[in-house]
Design brief:
Phosphoenolpyruvate Carboxykinase, domain 3; alpha+beta; Outer Surface Protein A, domain 3; five-stranded mixed β-sheet; elongated; 25% strand; 22 strands
């Protein structure tokens, strides 16, 4: 793989840091803006609207202007001001070592000798700006398509096949929402469309051969190994309006594998979205509550994709003939298993015996049972939602998510800072018809694990507080 291809893929995935943001100088930008305004441009393109970001584009090459006008057309918005949000793609001529520059307003985003990288950075920076300028939405790294007013949301990491799958679904009659960023409105729980052009890499050209664009030869130097396909090139009525998520599917492309759907609980469906959320840490409890509301009315799955046709059949089948996800929480979820870079961990009853309670939890004479008079409470700043018996916790201090299975969730829900642990053990043992020593051991280990993650705090003994 060439360096140019690696850079283009990274740019499209949003994984490249934007060095331009670190070197902003208003006076320098004003001078650059004045120089740009004095250059010879083709007709201005736009204005365009992408969720919370409005922008325009100007280029020097008439063929490139025609090309961009076509691929950006689905983003066309009502006439408006775009001052400061106009992209300028400059061609300095073939005598320049770094022939191409991309600016947003007077801020230079990149200067490069590669036409492909200049255009890739344009699309990447639009994606980045949508995320930056849409703080009121919960933004997922996901593709999405709709059938009537029901949408399938497909959160996944880069190179998982999100774009290929959503392109196949649009070919089969679904309507296009996005292949990059699903924007959820926390108030309405609706998806706001972001109908950017589909970014189809060379690895998908064979299965999506019907989407091959016909372009002016003068533009081919900008395209490299990627097609930019507007959904309206697939079908004139291919664009969806705002709609409600009905199915959450996390796809993974595995060459040669059997295509298979795996139902997951709604709590794990929430984690699949949170793991691919651009701004979860920024929005915190708002993002948690929004995603919880989404999955409460959605079915959740993992999808192994070996065949695009079979994967499309499976997804469309769920939208047309919805099936209920098993909502039983896992009774044997592993304890503190790292799920992702966001820092998910799972707490589960069957694994509680693997960790020893710390001294603050255990009694002096019995390491398996907590001190009966101790009182524990959920720590402030830890937000939680209950989904079909499982609990998802978000610790805003550490920006970490945790999943509690049904057993650990019952214990968590009882930690109100008032009931002594001994009384809690008695009540749970009676309610679940479990021997008291077994329940005491489970509660002690659950408290130890939660305390180790700083999710709970021990208060004064109730008797001491009464004195």
């Amino acid at each position: 793989m060439t360096a140019a291809v690696r850079n283009r893929r990274a740019a499209n995935a949003g994984e490249v840091d934007d060095p331009a943001e670190r070197r902003r100088r208003p006076e320098r930008e004003a001078r650059a803006q004045a120089r740009l305004d004095g250059m010879a441009w083709c007709r201005p393109l736009g204005p365009y609207r992408a969720v919370g970001f409005s922008f325009g584009v100007r280029v020097m090459d008439p063929a490139l202007a025609d090309y961009l006008a076509g691929v950006l057309a689905p983003l066309g918005g009502p006439p408006g001001r775009t001052e400061g949000s106009v992209y300028s793609l400059v061609d300095h001529g073939d005598t320049s070592r770094s022939r191409y520059s991309l600016y947003l307003g007077g801020l230079r985003v990149i200067r490069t000798p590669l036409a492909t990288l200049a255009l890739s950075y344009l699309f990447w920076h639009i994606n980045r700006s949508v995320i930056r300028e849409s703080p009121g939405h919960v933004l997922l790294h996901a593709s999405a398509a709709a059938c009537d007013d029901r949408a399938v949301v497909m959160p996944a990491a880069q190179e998982s096949g999100k774009t290929t799958l959503v392109a196949g679904l649009v070919q089969r009659g679904l309507r296009y929402l996005t292949d990059e960023a699903v924007a959820l409105d926390p108030a309405s729980r609706l998806i706001e469309p972001f109908p950017k052009p589909l970014s189809v890499d060379a690895g998908s050209w064979r299965v999506l051969a019907a989407l091959a664009p016909v372009v002016d030869p003068a533009v081919e130097c900008y395209l490299g190994g990627q097609w930019h396909v507007p959904a309206t090139a697939i079908r004139a009525d291919a664009l969806a309006g705002p709609c409600r998520p009905a199915v959450v599917i996390s796809p993974t492309y595995v060459p040669g594998a059997e295509t298979a759907l795996e139902p997951v609980s709604r709590a794990k469906g929430l984690l699949l979205m949170a793991d691919n959320c651009f701004n979860f840490a920024m929005l915190g409890s708002v993002a948690l509550d929004t995603l919880a509301a989404v999955v409460r009315s959605a079915d959740c799955f993992r999808l192994t994709v070996g065949s695009l046709d079979e994967a499309c059949d499976a997804v469309i089948g769920l939208l047309v003939r919805p099936v209920a996800t098993s909502t039983e929480g896992s009774a044997d979820a592993p304890l503190l298993t790292e799920l992702s870079e966001l820092g998910h961990s799972e707490l589960g009853r069957s694994e509680l015996g693997r960790s020893e309670p710390p001294a603050a939890v255990s009694g002096r004479g019995d390491e398996s049972e907590p001190r009966g008079s101790s009182v524990w409470a959920r720590r402030a700043g830890v937000h939680s939602v209950e989904l079909d018996g499982e609990w998802v916790l978000y610790d805003e201090r550490g920006a970490r998510l945790h999943l509690l299975n049904q057993s650990a969730g019952v214990i968590w829900s009882c930690l109100d800072g008032d009931i002594p642990v001994g009384q809690l053990i008695d009540e749970l043992a009676e309610s679940f018809s479990v021997d008291r020593p077994e329940m005491a051991a489970d509660v002690g280990r659950a408290l130890a694990t939660m305390a180790a993650q700083a999710l709970v705090v021990e208060r004064q003994d109730r008797q001491a507080r009464l004195r």
